[in-house]
Amino acid sequence: MAYIQFLGAAGTVTGSKHLLNVSGDGTGKSGTQVLIDCGLFQGKKEWRERNWQDVPIAAHEIECLILTHAHLDHCGWIPRLVKQGFRGPIYATPSTIDLCSIILPDSGHLQEEDAAFHNKFKTSKHEPALPLYTLEEAQDCLQYFKPVEFGVVKQVSADVSFRFVHAAHILGSSMAEVTVKAGDGDIRTTRLLFTGDIGRVHDQHTAPGKVVYSGPQSGEAADILVMESTYGNRNHPDSDPRPELSSLIRKTVERGGSVVVPAFAVERTQKFVFMLKELMESGQCPRVPVYCDSPMAIKAVEIFLKHREEYSDATKELVNKYGSPLEWQGFNFAQTAQESKKINDSRFPCIIISSSGMVTGGRIQHHLIQRLPDPRNTVLFIGFQAPGTRGFTVKSGAPEVKIFGQMIPIRAQVAALEQFSDHADTPELLEWLHTFSFKPNITYLVHGEPDASAQLRDAIAKDLGWNVRIAQWMEKVEV
Ligand SMILES: [Zn+2]
Fold it and tell me: How far, in Å, is the centroid of ligand 1 from the Cα of 331?
Protein backbone atom coordinates (compact mmCIF):
# COMPACT_ATOMS: atom_id res chain seq x y z
CA MET A 1 0.00 0.00 0.00
CA ALA A 2 1.52 3.24 -1.11
CA TYR A 3 0.09 6.56 -2.14
CA ILE A 4 0.92 10.08 -3.25
CA GLN A 5 -0.98 12.96 -1.69
CA PHE A 6 -0.91 16.31 -3.49
CA LEU A 7 -0.46 18.92 -0.77
CA GLY A 8 0.14 21.80 -3.15
CA ALA A 9 0.55 22.97 -6.76
CA ALA A 10 -2.79 21.33 -7.57
CA GLY A 11 -5.02 23.73 -9.46
CA THR A 12 -2.38 26.45 -9.17
CA VAL A 13 1.28 27.08 -10.01
CA THR A 14 2.56 27.56 -6.47
CA GLY A 15 2.96 25.60 -3.23
CA SER A 16 4.52 22.46 -4.78
CA LYS A 17 4.40 19.74 -2.13
CA HIS A 18 3.80 16.04 -2.76
CA LEU A 19 3.74 13.47 0.00
CA LEU A 20 4.74 9.92 -0.82
CA ASN A 21 3.63 7.38 1.75
CA VAL A 22 4.93 3.85 1.45
CA SER A 23 3.65 1.45 4.04
CA GLY A 24 3.84 -2.32 4.20
CA ASP A 25 0.96 -2.74 6.64
CA GLY A 26 -1.77 -1.16 4.58
CA THR A 27 -2.78 1.35 7.26
CA GLY A 28 -0.83 4.17 5.66
CA LYS A 29 0.35 5.31 9.07
CA SER A 30 3.67 3.85 9.92
CA GLY A 31 5.37 3.58 6.57
CA THR A 32 8.10 5.60 4.97
CA GLN A 33 6.92 9.14 4.34
CA VAL A 34 8.84 11.25 1.85
CA LEU A 35 8.02 14.77 0.79
CA ILE A 36 8.88 15.89 -2.73
CA ASP A 37 9.27 19.68 -2.75
CA CYS A 38 8.06 22.01 -0.04
CA GLY A 39 6.96 25.20 -1.72
CA LEU A 40 5.27 28.37 -0.65
CA PHE A 41 1.80 29.24 -1.91
CA GLN A 42 1.88 32.64 -3.60
CA GLY A 43 -0.65 34.81 -5.42
CA LYS A 44 -4.33 34.82 -4.47
CA LYS A 45 -5.27 35.16 -0.79
CA GLU A 46 -7.12 31.82 -0.75
CA TRP A 47 -3.85 30.18 -1.78
CA ARG A 48 -1.59 32.15 0.54
CA GLU A 49 -3.77 31.23 3.52
CA ARG A 50 -2.84 27.60 2.91
CA ASN A 51 0.70 28.46 4.02
CA TRP A 52 -0.67 28.54 7.57
CA GLN A 53 -2.03 24.99 7.44
CA ASP A 54 0.08 22.16 8.83
CA VAL A 55 0.95 19.11 6.78
CA PRO A 56 -1.67 16.38 7.34
CA ILE A 57 0.79 14.07 9.12
CA ALA A 58 3.22 14.66 11.98
CA ALA A 59 6.15 16.54 10.39
CA HIS A 60 8.70 14.64 12.48
CA GLU A 61 7.50 11.39 10.88
CA ILE A 62 8.63 12.53 7.44
CA GLU A 63 11.76 10.59 6.60
CA CYS A 64 13.27 13.13 4.22
CA LEU A 65 12.54 15.91 1.77
CA ILE A 66 13.60 15.65 -1.85
CA LEU A 67 13.90 19.14 -3.31
CA THR A 68 13.86 19.63 -7.09
CA HIS A 69 15.01 23.26 -7.22
CA ALA A 70 15.43 26.56 -5.42
CA HIS A 71 12.40 28.57 -6.55
CA LEU A 72 10.30 29.66 -3.57
CA ASP A 73 7.19 27.91 -4.87
CA HIS A 74 9.17 24.67 -4.43
CA CYS A 75 11.38 25.38 -1.38
CA GLY A 76 9.87 28.39 0.41
CA TRP A 77 7.81 26.39 2.94
CA ILE A 78 10.83 24.43 4.30
CA PRO A 79 11.32 26.68 7.36
CA ARG A 80 7.67 26.14 8.23
CA LEU A 81 8.07 22.35 7.95
CA VAL A 82 11.11 22.49 10.24
CA LYS A 83 9.12 24.70 12.62
CA GLN A 84 6.55 21.90 12.77
CA GLY A 85 9.17 19.40 13.85
CA PHE A 86 10.71 18.02 10.65
CA ARG A 87 14.36 17.14 11.30
CA GLY A 88 15.17 14.80 8.43
CA PRO A 89 17.65 15.39 5.61
CA ILE A 90 16.73 17.74 2.77
CA TYR A 91 18.26 16.27 -0.37
CA ALA A 92 19.11 18.68 -3.17
CA THR A 93 21.82 19.23 -5.77
CA PRO A 94 24.86 21.27 -4.58
CA SER A 95 23.89 24.33 -6.65
CA THR A 96 20.30 24.20 -5.36
CA ILE A 97 21.71 24.21 -1.83
CA ASP A 98 23.87 27.25 -2.63
CA LEU A 99 20.82 29.07 -3.97
CA CYS A 100 18.63 28.10 -1.01
CA SER A 101 21.26 29.44 1.37
CA ILE A 102 20.51 32.96 0.14
CA ILE A 103 16.90 32.62 -1.03
CA LEU A 104 15.40 31.15 2.16
CA PRO A 105 16.89 33.71 4.59
CA ASP A 106 15.78 36.47 2.19
CA SER A 107 12.28 34.99 2.21
CA GLY A 108 12.31 34.96 6.04
CA HIS A 109 13.37 38.59 5.98
CA LEU A 110 10.49 39.46 3.64
CA GLN A 111 8.00 37.59 5.86
CA GLU A 112 9.19 39.63 8.84
CA GLU A 113 9.00 42.89 6.89
CA ASP A 114 5.45 42.06 5.78
CA ALA A 115 4.31 41.33 9.33
CA ALA A 116 5.98 44.53 10.60
CA PHE A 117 4.21 46.54 7.89
CA HIS A 118 0.80 45.08 8.79
CA ASN A 119 1.38 45.77 12.47
CA LYS A 120 2.45 49.35 11.82
CA PHE A 121 -0.52 50.21 9.62
CA LYS A 122 -3.03 47.81 11.22
CA THR A 123 -3.81 46.28 7.83
CA SER A 124 -4.18 42.69 9.02
CA LYS A 125 -7.12 41.10 10.80
CA HIS A 126 -4.58 39.29 12.98
CA GLU A 127 -3.35 41.12 16.06
CA PRO A 128 -0.40 41.08 15.99
CA ALA A 129 0.36 39.88 12.44
CA LEU A 130 3.06 37.21 12.60
CA PRO A 131 5.64 36.24 10.00
CA LEU A 132 5.20 32.77 8.52
CA TYR A 133 8.83 32.32 9.59
CA THR A 134 11.72 34.58 10.43
CA LEU A 135 15.11 35.11 8.83
CA GLU A 136 16.67 33.25 11.76
CA GLU A 137 14.33 30.29 11.38
CA ALA A 138 15.11 30.16 7.66
CA GLN A 139 18.82 30.20 8.38
CA ASP A 140 18.43 27.48 10.98
CA CYS A 141 16.88 25.03 8.51
CA LEU A 142 19.93 25.19 6.19
CA GLN A 143 21.72 22.69 8.46
CA TYR A 144 19.40 19.91 7.22
CA PHE A 145 20.40 20.23 3.56
CA LYS A 146 22.43 17.30 2.19
CA PRO A 147 23.96 17.46 -1.28
CA VAL A 148 23.18 14.73 -3.82
CA GLU A 149 24.90 14.99 -7.19
CA PHE A 150 22.99 14.48 -10.44
CA GLY A 151 22.74 10.80 -11.41
CA VAL A 152 23.71 9.35 -8.01
CA VAL A 153 21.22 6.85 -6.53
CA LYS A 154 20.33 7.66 -2.93
CA GLN A 155 18.70 5.02 -0.77
CA VAL A 156 16.28 6.77 1.57
CA SER A 157 14.88 3.68 3.31
CA ALA A 158 14.53 -0.04 2.61
CA ASP A 159 11.61 0.69 0.28
CA VAL A 160 12.43 4.08 -1.28
CA SER A 161 15.38 5.34 -3.33
CA PHE A 162 15.78 8.21 -5.76
CA ARG A 163 18.14 10.01 -8.09
CA PHE A 164 18.22 13.49 -9.60
CA VAL A 165 18.33 14.04 -13.35
CA HIS A 166 18.62 17.37 -15.16
CA ALA A 167 15.44 19.40 -15.55
CA ALA A 168 17.23 22.27 -17.35
CA HIS A 169 14.90 24.79 -15.71
CA ILE A 170 17.22 26.90 -13.52
CA LEU A 171 20.64 26.41 -11.98
CA GLY A 172 20.67 23.14 -10.00
CA SER A 173 17.16 22.17 -11.11
CA SER A 174 16.35 18.49 -11.20
CA MET A 175 13.62 15.98 -11.71
CA ALA A 176 13.38 13.26 -9.07
CA GLU A 177 13.20 9.65 -10.24
CA VAL A 178 11.84 7.80 -7.21
CA THR A 179 11.78 4.01 -6.95
CA VAL A 180 9.29 2.47 -4.53
CA LYS A 181 9.12 -1.14 -3.40
CA ALA A 182 5.70 -1.86 -1.97
CA GLY A 183 3.02 -4.51 -1.69
CA ASP A 184 1.47 -7.01 0.70
CA GLY A 185 3.67 -10.05 0.46
CA ASP A 186 4.11 -9.68 -3.28
CA ILE A 187 6.57 -6.78 -3.43
CA ARG A 188 6.58 -4.82 -6.66
CA THR A 189 8.81 -2.04 -7.83
CA THR A 190 7.20 1.16 -9.10
CA ARG A 191 9.07 3.96 -10.80
CA LEU A 192 7.81 7.47 -10.18
CA LEU A 193 9.03 10.59 -11.89
CA PHE A 194 8.43 13.99 -10.28
CA THR A 195 9.38 16.55 -12.86
CA GLY A 196 9.58 19.66 -10.66
CA ASP A 197 9.65 22.44 -13.24
CA ILE A 198 10.70 21.47 -16.76
CA GLY A 199 13.09 23.72 -18.64
CA ARG A 200 12.98 24.59 -22.31
CA VAL A 201 13.82 21.72 -24.58
CA HIS A 202 15.48 23.72 -27.30
CA ASP A 203 18.86 25.35 -27.50
CA GLN A 204 20.04 28.94 -27.60
CA HIS A 205 18.63 29.49 -31.04
CA THR A 206 15.00 28.77 -30.22
CA ALA A 207 15.16 29.66 -26.52
CA PRO A 208 17.51 32.64 -26.48
CA GLY A 209 16.88 33.46 -22.83
CA LYS A 210 17.91 30.03 -21.66
CA VAL A 211 20.76 29.95 -19.15
CA VAL A 212 21.29 26.33 -18.15
CA TYR A 213 22.42 23.71 -20.61
CA SER A 214 20.20 21.91 -23.06
CA GLY A 215 17.74 19.46 -21.59
CA PRO A 216 15.60 18.23 -19.87
CA GLN A 217 16.85 14.65 -19.54
CA SER A 218 15.46 12.63 -22.43
CA GLY A 219 14.60 8.92 -22.55
CA GLU A 220 12.93 8.85 -19.14
CA ALA A 221 10.95 5.84 -17.92
CA ALA A 222 8.18 6.00 -15.34
CA ASP A 223 5.16 3.99 -14.24
CA ILE A 224 3.69 7.10 -12.67
CA LEU A 225 4.54 10.56 -13.91
CA VAL A 226 3.85 13.69 -11.83
CA MET A 227 4.37 16.52 -14.24
CA GLU A 228 4.19 20.32 -14.23
CA SER A 229 1.83 22.11 -16.62
CA THR A 230 2.58 25.84 -16.22
CA TYR A 231 2.62 26.48 -19.97
CA GLY A 232 0.21 23.70 -20.90
CA ASN A 233 -1.69 26.14 -23.10
CA ARG A 234 1.06 28.33 -24.47
CA ASN A 235 3.68 28.57 -27.20
CA HIS A 236 6.72 30.75 -26.54
CA PRO A 237 7.99 33.10 -29.22
CA ASP A 238 11.27 31.84 -30.64
CA SER A 239 12.57 35.15 -31.90
CA ASP A 240 15.76 36.79 -30.62
CA PRO A 241 14.68 39.11 -27.75
CA ARG A 242 17.69 41.42 -28.16
CA PRO A 243 16.41 43.77 -30.90
CA GLU A 244 13.13 44.25 -29.02
CA LEU A 245 14.95 44.78 -25.73
CA SER A 246 17.31 47.36 -27.27
CA SER A 247 14.42 49.21 -28.82
CA LEU A 248 12.45 49.28 -25.54
CA ILE A 249 15.43 50.68 -23.66
CA ARG A 250 16.30 53.21 -26.35
CA LYS A 251 12.76 54.59 -26.59
CA THR A 252 12.38 54.79 -22.79
CA VAL A 253 15.70 56.59 -22.39
CA GLU A 254 14.87 58.99 -25.24
CA ARG A 255 11.75 60.14 -23.43
CA GLY A 256 13.73 60.57 -20.22
CA GLY A 257 12.35 57.49 -18.48
CA SER A 258 13.81 54.46 -16.72
CA VAL A 259 13.26 50.74 -17.23
CA VAL A 260 12.19 48.72 -14.19
CA VAL A 261 12.58 44.95 -14.44
CA PRO A 262 11.10 42.66 -11.78
CA ALA A 263 13.28 39.54 -11.83
CA PHE A 264 14.32 36.58 -9.72
CA ALA A 265 17.58 37.72 -8.10
CA VAL A 266 19.72 34.84 -9.18
CA GLU A 267 20.40 33.52 -12.65
CA ARG A 268 17.58 35.36 -14.45
CA THR A 269 19.00 38.69 -13.28
CA GLN A 270 22.56 37.70 -14.19
CA LYS A 271 21.67 36.45 -17.64
CA PHE A 272 19.74 39.64 -18.25
CA VAL A 273 22.65 41.73 -17.02
CA PHE A 274 25.05 39.91 -19.38
CA MET A 275 22.67 40.57 -22.24
CA LEU A 276 22.54 44.27 -21.36
CA LYS A 277 26.34 44.40 -21.21
CA GLU A 278 26.59 42.83 -24.64
CA LEU A 279 24.01 45.24 -26.10
CA MET A 280 25.79 48.24 -24.59
CA GLU A 281 29.25 47.10 -25.70
CA SER A 282 28.03 46.61 -29.26
CA GLY A 283 26.32 50.00 -29.27
CA GLN A 284 22.84 48.53 -29.75
CA CYS A 285 21.45 50.17 -26.63
CA PRO A 286 22.41 53.34 -24.76
CA ARG A 287 24.85 53.15 -21.86
CA VAL A 288 22.77 54.09 -18.86
CA PRO A 289 23.44 53.05 -15.26
CA VAL A 290 22.21 49.57 -14.36
CA TYR A 291 21.16 48.83 -10.77
CA CYS A 292 20.75 45.29 -9.50
CA ASP A 293 18.85 45.91 -6.33
CA SER A 294 18.64 42.95 -4.02
CA PRO A 295 19.96 42.24 -0.51
CA MET A 296 21.56 39.15 -2.03
CA ALA A 297 22.77 40.86 -5.22
CA ILE A 298 26.49 40.25 -4.71
CA LYS A 299 26.15 36.70 -3.39
CA ALA A 300 23.82 35.92 -6.28
CA VAL A 301 26.53 36.92 -8.79
CA GLU A 302 29.07 34.81 -6.93
CA ILE A 303 26.83 31.73 -7.06
CA PHE A 304 26.15 32.38 -10.75
CA LEU A 305 29.88 32.46 -11.52
CA LYS A 306 30.65 29.45 -9.30
CA HIS A 307 28.45 26.96 -11.17
CA ARG A 308 29.45 27.55 -14.79
CA GLU A 309 29.44 23.79 -15.44
CA GLU A 310 25.65 23.85 -15.69
CA TYR A 311 25.38 26.68 -18.22
CA SER A 312 24.65 26.65 -21.89
CA ASP A 313 27.53 27.33 -24.27
CA ALA A 314 26.16 30.77 -25.07
CA THR A 315 26.04 31.73 -21.39
CA LYS A 316 29.54 30.34 -20.79
CA GLU A 317 30.80 32.41 -23.71
CA LEU A 318 29.33 35.57 -22.22
CA VAL A 319 30.87 34.82 -18.81
CA ASN A 320 34.27 34.15 -20.39
CA LYS A 321 34.09 37.28 -22.49
CA TYR A 322 32.99 39.79 -19.89
CA GLY A 323 34.10 38.34 -16.53
CA SER A 324 32.42 39.29 -13.27
CA PRO A 325 29.57 41.83 -13.44
CA LEU A 326 30.72 43.08 -10.03
CA GLU A 327 33.64 44.77 -11.80
CA TRP A 328 31.84 46.37 -14.72
CA GLN A 329 31.62 50.11 -14.93
CA GLY A 330 28.11 51.47 -14.79
CA PHE A 331 26.69 48.32 -13.18
CA ASN A 332 25.80 48.72 -9.52
CA PHE A 333 24.87 46.06 -7.01
CA ALA A 334 22.87 47.43 -4.10
CA GLN A 335 23.18 45.31 -1.00
CA THR A 336 21.96 47.54 1.81
CA ALA A 337 18.61 49.24 2.23
CA GLN A 338 20.39 52.60 2.08
CA GLU A 339 21.98 51.81 -1.28
CA SER A 340 18.56 50.74 -2.48
CA LYS A 341 16.94 54.01 -1.40
CA LYS A 342 19.62 55.97 -3.26
CA ILE A 343 18.39 54.46 -6.54
CA ASN A 344 15.05 56.19 -5.93
CA ASP A 345 16.84 59.54 -5.99
CA SER A 346 18.23 58.91 -9.45
CA ARG A 347 16.42 61.33 -11.75
CA PHE A 348 18.35 60.31 -14.86
CA PRO A 349 17.35 57.36 -17.05
CA CYS A 350 18.56 54.06 -15.68
CA ILE A 351 17.72 50.35 -15.64
CA ILE A 352 16.61 48.86 -12.32
CA ILE A 353 16.47 45.09 -11.89
CA SER A 354 14.97 44.02 -8.60
CA SER A 355 13.13 41.13 -6.96
CA SER A 356 10.77 39.55 -6.37
CA GLY A 357 10.08 38.56 -9.95
CA MET A 358 6.28 38.47 -9.48
CA VAL A 359 6.26 41.57 -7.21
CA THR A 360 4.97 39.50 -4.29
CA GLY A 361 7.43 41.28 -1.98
CA GLY A 362 10.89 42.79 -1.86
CA ARG A 363 12.44 46.03 -3.04
CA ILE A 364 10.83 45.97 -6.47
CA GLN A 365 7.68 47.25 -4.72
CA HIS A 366 9.38 50.54 -3.78
CA HIS A 367 10.70 50.99 -7.30
CA LEU A 368 7.25 50.43 -8.78
CA ILE A 369 5.64 52.88 -6.34
CA GLN A 370 8.21 55.44 -7.56
CA ARG A 371 8.14 54.71 -11.27
CA LEU A 372 4.70 53.31 -12.21
CA PRO A 373 2.84 56.67 -12.18
CA ASP A 374 5.21 58.27 -14.74
CA PRO A 375 4.41 57.51 -18.41
CA ARG A 376 8.04 58.06 -19.42
CA ASN A 377 9.06 54.84 -17.62
CA THR A 378 8.78 51.23 -18.75
CA VAL A 379 8.09 48.17 -16.62
CA LEU A 380 9.50 45.13 -18.34
CA PHE A 381 8.51 41.59 -17.31
CA ILE A 382 10.91 38.79 -18.18
CA GLY A 383 9.28 36.00 -16.15
CA PHE A 384 6.03 34.16 -15.47
CA GLN A 385 3.41 36.11 -13.48
CA ALA A 386 1.06 33.92 -11.47
CA PRO A 387 -2.58 35.10 -11.21
CA GLY A 388 -3.20 37.02 -8.02
CA THR A 389 0.32 38.48 -7.86
CA ARG A 390 0.95 42.21 -8.29
CA GLY A 391 3.09 41.34 -11.29
CA PHE A 392 0.09 39.68 -12.94
CA THR A 393 -2.09 42.76 -12.23
CA VAL A 394 0.44 45.16 -13.77
CA LYS A 395 1.14 42.91 -16.76
CA SER A 396 -2.54 42.37 -17.53
CA GLY A 397 -3.12 46.09 -18.21
CA ALA A 398 -4.87 47.12 -14.97
CA PRO A 399 -5.10 50.91 -14.40
CA GLU A 400 -3.75 50.64 -10.85
CA VAL A 401 -2.15 48.21 -8.41
CA LYS A 402 -2.14 47.99 -4.63
CA ILE A 403 1.32 48.12 -3.10
CA PHE A 404 1.86 48.54 0.65
CA GLY A 405 -1.80 49.36 1.09
CA GLN A 406 -1.88 52.24 -1.43
CA MET A 407 -3.36 52.21 -4.91
CA ILE A 408 -0.62 53.13 -7.39
CA PRO A 409 -1.74 54.38 -10.82
CA ILE A 410 -0.11 52.53 -13.71
CA ARG A 411 0.86 55.08 -16.34
CA ALA A 412 4.25 53.65 -17.29
CA GLN A 413 4.57 51.55 -20.42
CA VAL A 414 4.23 47.85 -19.60
CA ALA A 415 6.13 45.32 -21.73
CA ALA A 416 7.00 41.63 -21.53
CA LEU A 417 9.58 39.42 -23.19
CA GLU A 418 8.47 35.79 -23.00
CA GLN A 419 11.71 34.45 -24.48
CA PHE A 420 13.31 34.43 -21.04
CA SER A 421 10.92 31.78 -19.77
CA ASP A 422 12.47 28.92 -17.80
CA HIS A 423 9.50 26.65 -18.54
CA ALA A 424 9.01 24.48 -21.58
CA ASP A 425 5.95 25.46 -23.62
CA THR A 426 3.34 22.98 -24.87
CA PRO A 427 5.14 21.77 -28.04
CA GLU A 428 8.37 21.39 -26.02
CA LEU A 429 6.62 19.41 -23.27
CA LEU A 430 5.11 17.08 -25.87
CA GLU A 431 8.45 16.73 -27.61
CA TRP A 432 10.05 15.74 -24.32
CA LEU A 433 7.30 13.20 -23.55
CA HIS A 434 7.89 11.63 -26.97
CA THR A 435 11.40 10.64 -25.80
CA PHE A 436 10.01 8.41 -23.01
CA SER A 437 10.99 4.77 -23.40
CA PHE A 438 7.45 3.57 -22.58
CA LYS A 439 4.01 4.90 -21.77
CA PRO A 440 3.46 5.60 -18.04
CA ASN A 441 0.43 3.87 -16.49
CA ILE A 442 -0.83 7.25 -15.44
CA THR A 443 0.29 10.86 -15.60
CA TYR A 444 -0.82 13.39 -12.99
CA LEU A 445 -0.61 17.03 -13.97
CA VAL A 446 0.34 19.49 -11.24
CA HIS A 447 1.71 23.06 -11.13
CA GLY A 448 -0.67 24.69 -13.59
CA GLU A 449 -3.67 26.98 -13.70
CA PRO A 450 -6.79 24.83 -14.32
CA ASP A 451 -7.06 25.88 -17.97
CA ALA A 452 -3.39 25.20 -18.74
CA SER A 453 -3.54 21.76 -17.07
CA ALA A 454 -6.76 20.83 -18.89
CA GLN A 455 -5.38 21.81 -22.29
CA LEU A 456 -2.15 19.92 -21.68
CA ARG A 457 -4.11 16.84 -20.56
CA ASP A 458 -6.06 16.90 -23.81
CA ALA A 459 -2.94 17.53 -25.89
CA ILE A 460 -1.08 14.58 -24.32
CA ALA A 461 -4.09 12.28 -24.71
CA LYS A 462 -4.45 13.27 -28.35
CA ASP A 463 -0.78 13.26 -29.28
CA LEU A 464 0.46 10.26 -27.29
CA GLY A 465 -2.70 8.43 -26.18
CA TRP A 466 -1.59 8.52 -22.54
CA ASN A 467 -3.81 8.25 -19.50
CA VAL A 468 -3.64 11.73 -17.94
CA ARG A 469 -5.38 13.20 -14.91
CA ILE A 470 -5.24 16.60 -13.25
CA ALA A 471 -4.21 16.29 -9.61
CA GLN A 472 -6.63 17.72 -7.04
CA TRP A 473 -5.54 19.44 -3.86
CA MET A 474 -5.20 17.00 -0.91
CA GLU A 475 -6.18 14.08 -3.15
CA LYS A 476 -4.53 10.72 -2.44
CA VAL A 477 -3.70 8.48 -5.38
CA GLU A 478 -2.49 4.95 -5.21
CA VAL A 479 1.06 4.01 -6.21
ZN1 LIG B 1 10.74 26.83 -10.83
Answer: 27
